[in-house]
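Lab notebook, bench 4. The sequencing result for the construct came back, and we need a structural model before the next group meeting so we can plan mutations. Quick request posted to the team channel:

Model the 3D structure of this chain.
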Amino acid sequence: MSETSKGKVALVAGGTRGAGRGIAVELGAAGATVYVTGRSTAGRRSEIDRPETIEETAELVTAAGGHGIAVQVDHLDPGQVRALVERVEREQGRLDVLVNNIWGGELLFSWDKTLWEHSLDKGLRILRLAIDTHIITSHHALPLLLRNPGGLVVEMTDGTAEYNAANYRISFFYDLAKTSVIRMAFAQAEELGPRGATAVALTPGWMRSEIMLEHFGVTEAGWRDALEREPHFAISETTRFVGRAVAALAGDPDVARWNGRSLSSGQLAQVYGFTDLDGSRPDAWRYVTEVQDAGKPADTTGYR
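Done. Here's the predicted structure in token form:
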């Protein structure tokens, strides 16, 4: 990836692992200074209780060619978010890219319980983690982002607006959380567009996050070993693929053409020409609709 964002300042909120880490690293590879936030640090794990830390992500950003800065932040705490933005303003004087990737609900939602059977406390916690955190972060960060023209807000979600409108996404609380983020991007676009900034919703495809690889009992190097258990996993992508999508958007002088849109990593790869780490361009959401949901045998021909 060429250094299309050299000199830009980015905040990847929720950059400990998964898509957030992939995005932060690719923004670093494009030459950006990247503030990486999350709750898991070298000295303290979040409730998810996983080993990945924001310090590791920041180091990967720097190793990729950018400048990674790790800041422990609970994005449900307005005071902590305000202090974070004040620090960015004090140290950089600007904010060019805001990526709202906060989630943290992996252990809270159920795959098979109805609204009335699901734990209400866990369900409401999902909404707090997935929706309130994004609102709090944008509320405090947008004034700084608007200080210079051309700012970009990326709301990370799961599924495109088209797909989510036609399909029930796992469970009530998960469905509501992921679809709400798409609408938040649309609403921010309405307010940011006339002021010279852009907001989009972005989804990866079937992403080989640390948690997903662990679920299948495989490593990134041997991810294809999971195909015997789940053949459609063949369409999966690395976390860096959606990272390259964000880097492409951040480096596009005509990014305003996407304002308010719901986008996917596979869709943007066709437009900007980037590939995943293996040189392929997986178009997961088209595959899911035309192959997986259609009940056809797994075959990625024409989809990556």
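Strands lie at 9-13, 33-38, 67-72, 97-100, 152-156, 198-203, 262-264.
Will bring this to the meeting.
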